[in-house]
Design goal:
- The structure is a single chain.
- The protein has about 325 residues and is mainly alpha-helical.
- It has one domain.
- It contains 13 helices and no strands.
- α2 runs antiparallel to α10, α4 crosses α9 and α5 runs parallel beside α8.
- It starts with a helix and ends in a 7-residue tail after the last helix.
Length: about 325
């Protein structure tokens, strides 16, 4: 059932006329679905963690499934490119930043904060990308970016700490998730050097494959002896399959198609939906309740993200 669904979703929306001036509605369906799947990923992670499966085991299984599926998809489409030896060092560093450090920080952080809080912090990544542009391309950072960061950070503080009874735990969890944000920025810096040489499918496939090599020793040292104690319930296993298939593979395919047609900036705007989607999914799936102050904080984060995109008219 899952392979057929995967094949259907990945093919029905990829028949796009790239020469057409009018953007197909299917592109918008794809980018929205990609962000829906990513919004759900935080809820799936919460279900898995609450079942007793540890973060390292969760990420290892997710990456094994995603790598296999991406490999099959890459072979089917013929989009995989062999890595040149001189570029191997970049891929090693890419995989260290993301998925290794990114998933470690994000998943361990979510053991201390809720799915919605995690998604809100992760959604601030676009705020800090101009600093990457400044370091690499010496691009100027406008006042809109600075104001957007201030507004969004105030919102993050509200979402994390309003009504919290465990200040130290929330703070530690938030710091870990921000570690994932930093890892993502490091990834952005490194990918700059090879993005024009290798396609997106090749990048993600090999960084996941190398990431597995990084994660395996951690699993053997930390988790291997405790696997028998973990509760692989039906909900946990189904969430593992869904997060691997939909969030790690199909969402990536859809997002890549959207970037080709809409561009990175227009496609990135849709990620601002993720915190709201996660909050709604968490409410219905894991019964997460948000206080009014947290909703206000979430609105501030999203407002700050939009403010950061404002450019002064000439």
């Amino acid at each position: 059932m899952i392979p057929n669904t995967f094949y259907y979703l990945c093919t029905i929306f990829t028949k796009i006329d790239m020469q057409s001036e009018k953007v197909s509605y299917k592109i918008y369906v794809q980018i929205i679905l990609a962000n829906v799947f990513w919004g759900f990923s935080f809820v799936w992670t919460d279900v898995i963690l609450k079942s007793g499966i540890t973060p390292i085991t969760l990420v290892l299984i997710r990456m094994v499934l995603a790598t296999i599926l991406l490999g099959l998809w890459a072979k089917y489409t013929g989009n995989i490119i062999k890595i040149k030896r001189k570029h191997l060092k970049y891929f090693l560093c890419l995989a260290m930043c993301e998925p290794f450090l990114y998933f470690l920080c994000e998943t361990y952080g979510q053991t201390m904060v809720s799915p919605t809080v995690t998604s809100v912090i992760v959604a601030t990544i676009p705020l800090f990308t101009p600093f990457v542009g400044f370091m690499i391309l010496k691009e100027k950072i406008g006042w809109s970016t600075v104001i957007g960061i201030i507004v969004s950070m105030a919102g993050v503080i509200a979402v994390v700490f309003v009504g919290s009874n465990d200040f130290s735990g929330q703070f530690t969890g938030a710091v870990l998730v921000f570690g994932a944000v930093i890892a993502s920025l490091g990834y952005a810096i490194l990918v700059k050097y090879i993005m024009n040489i290798y396609n997106a499918t090749t990048l993600v496939f090999y960084q996941n494959l190398i990431g597995l090599i990084y994660f395996l020793p951690c699993f053997l040292i930390v988790d291997a002896s405790h696997v028998g104690e973990m509760q692989f319930t039906f909900d946990a296993v189904s969430s593992l399959v869904q997060i691997s298939v939909f969030a790690s593979v199909i969402a990536f395919v859809f997002y890549s198609n959207a970037v080709k047609v809409l561009g990175i900036i227009k496609s990135g705007v849709f990620c601002y939906l993720i915190p709201v989607l996660t909050a709604l999914f968490a409410f219905f799936v894991v019964d997460e309740q948000l206080k009014i102050g947290q909703w206000v904080g979430m609105a501030a984060v999203i407002s700050g993200l939009f403010i950061s995109q404002i450019k002064k008219s000439r």
